[in-house]
Design brief:
Rhopdopsin 7-helix transmembrane proteins; 5% strand; SAT4-like; transmembrane helix; 387 residues; two-stranded antiparallel ribbon; mainly alpha; transmembrane; two-stranded antiparallel sheet; membrane; 61% helix
Length: 387
Amino acid sequence: MPGDANTGLLVTKNRTWQDCGFAYHDEGVSIAWVPSFLFGMVTLFFAMRLATKWIGLSTWGLDDTTITFAYVMMIAFLVAAHLGRQEGFGKDIWTLTVDQITNFTRGFFAFEIVYSVTLAVIKASILFLYIRIFGALTETFRRILWATHIFNIVVCVTFVIVNLNQCKPLSYFWFGWDGRHPGYCIDLSAMALSHAAINIALDLWMLVLPATQIYKLNLQKRQKAGIMSMFGVGIFITIVSAVRLRSVAQFNKSWNPTYEFFGLALWSHIELCVGTIVACMPAARALVRRLFPELLYVTNISTNRTSTRASGNVKIVSQDIATIATDDLPESSTANSTKKDSFATLTPDRVPLRRLTTSDSLLQISPSDRDRSLYGDSQKGSKLSDW
């Protein structure tokens, strides 16, 4: 029978390695500490994000809700990594029992779905952060952000549905390896590679989004670079995703999947951890500024005075919530904007949005210079809010 032949091949392979004295692969030690270390880093940044809410540096938003969900999923990944060791994760497939191989393929099936959902949730958190910061600038850009949201959701839902229907019957995914069970699967290699490629493209797009808005600000290059650097750390997600794409390609060609999966799982875990850290980094920086302001002091910019450069007078306050406001508003609207610690904001079409206290601001126009627009003469009444 084909199943007996497949099992026999594994037994023969194992006997050959024993007789030839080849070293067996076992990543058990790495599985024991690497995921735990990465989760510890994620926990640190996540705790710093929660701390900013606790001490009132910023308010709770949808970006916080989604990243909290992602953090819970990261706990599931950590538990799964340790449980996977018992089913041969990181070991040569020819050293495993039939039950271990079957359980491994079941775990791999679940991994594909959980990974896709967690990655999409992390991206959603970052996009919600963009909406909080840039959503009040222009209606067009806000629509672009929501369109990106929808695309991210569509990609996630599509690949989850494809994963759930990749084999007929579904159980063939974890039983089909032995050759005893009838069924078929779609091209799993093409599916995995296309998902990785789409996510890399989406990562690059999400790097471009904030850059297009920061570039328009009428600020000095150093100030623009400082703001962009807070968003530019997202490039690390793209780099890790690219490395993971290579691991996906290698895994699809593997004749030793239980061992080769270690590399794919490792880079997938790193990608999720880096994404979570990047999503929490602005909040973490805000906390560090509050606790250790001297560590992040910006040369030539003081919280007690304004710069008098040609770009406009900008006062940097210690909090890491970015608010860029202008006072190019009708008299009826600007009457309230002179109140201490608050700004009334209108979109370019003069639709009232909301008021933000200056305790939530990073960049704020000083009262004496409200007639100067950070966007120059091209855009007015804009605001960069809630970091």
